[in-house]
Design a protein that fits this description.
Blueprint: H1 4-17, E1 24-27, H2 48-53, E2 64-66, E3 69-74, E4 77-82, E5 88-90, E6 97-103, E7 106-111, E8 118-123, H3 124-132, H4 153-157, H5 168-178, H6 191-212, E9 248-252, E10 255-259
Antiparallel strand pairs: 1-6, 2-3, 3-4, 4-8, 5-7, 6-7, 9-10
Helix pairs in contact: 1-6, 5-6
The chain binds a DNA duplex through α5.
DNA sequence: CACCATGTTAGGAG
DNA sequence: ACTCCTAACATGGT
């Protein structure tokens, strides 16, 4: 279940793993091959499997990332990758394998049990456009822009059109680092809160990336045996590591927000 | 069985 | 035009 740091980890892994052309492609479930980045997994079905085979025997370029999307170029064609909430690229045998790229040194598998992610094969120019279409600046490379609107700041941080890369977990953790109330209307944040939030976002992304480590394979929090190094995520009732007050949980835009009601409380007009 | 899940989108109400 | 909510995608874990 990936956000920007996990996608960046994936990008680096693909770069290490694939320095020579793909030799064969095996599509076990064509539904993950999508016609456009905006199409739902089962929508926009076309002969995507055939377009994947165009990449065979072409030298790969280092994958690029914007927000949670990856562009992976092979000559004049490219793949736009999105992991959704359940996608994973791995070199190990895995359940829910949907696509297998056969390399000189063994298989590289895309697995995605819920089909929330996908692979979009496109001509290079179209892929370049799709990489950033509809997305705000990259939260890691470009930093957090000053957002506007009356929406709660947590909801604004998760809006990919406003800033690309933050999702439910890292948005909440960044707000905790910055001591900002997730319910605060975006327009009510003062300069000091924005400054803290910029730092909080940057530190959260760096922390997450560092926690993923140098291992070959990614392990998500939700995986069996997966670690949870985050102070708030799924820890309602446990003490806040900073002030000791019980961590709370609320629902915003249909998603759980974990927060510390004591040190993230803000005086509201 | 009920509810939850690091994502995204379409559709509808106010 | 904004803002907000719900359902849907399809599956597994608690």
């Amino acid at each position: 279940m990936p956000e920007l740091p996990e996608v960046e980890f994936c990008r680096r892994a693909l770069d290490r793993w694939v320095r020579a052309p793909i030799r064969a492609v095996e599509v076990l479930d064509p539904r993950v091959i999508r016609g456009a980045t905006t199409a739902r997994p089962t929508a926009g079905l076309d002969d995507g499997a055939a377009r994947l085979t165009r990449l065979i025997d072409r030298p790969p370029a280092p994958p690029e990332r914007h927000g949670k999307r990856i562009l992976w170029r092979f000559g004049e064609d490219a793949l736009v990758l999105h992991l959704g909430m359940t996608g994973k690229w791995t070199r190990r045998p895995t359940p829910h394998a949907k696509v297998i790229l056969h390399l000189d040194d063994g298989p590289l598998t895309y697995a995605d049990p819920r089909l929330l992610g996908g692979i979009v094969p496109l001509p290079l120019a179209a892929a370049r456009a799709a990489l950033t279409a509809g997305l705000g600046p990259d939260a890691l490379r470009d930093g957090l822009p000053r957002l506007t609107g009356r929406r709660p700041i947590k909801v604004a941080l998760m809006d990919q059109a406003a800033v690309a890369g933050l999702g439910n977990l890292h948005a909440a953790e960044a707000l905790w680092r910055a001591c900002v109330d997730p319910r605060a209307p975006t327009d009510t944040l003062d300069d000091d809160a924005w400054a803290r939030l910029r730092v909080g976002v940057a530190e959260q992304l760096r922390f997450a990336l560092q926690t993923l480590g140098e291992d070959e394979e990614i392990l998500y929090v939700e995986d069996p045996g997966g670690p949870n190094p985050f102070p708030l995520y799924q820890r309602a009732g446990e003490p806040c590591p900073r002030c000791g007050a019980p961590i709370g949980r609320l629902v915003q835009a249909g998603r759980s927000t974990w927060w510390c009601p004591a040190c993230q409380a803000v005086s509201r007009p």
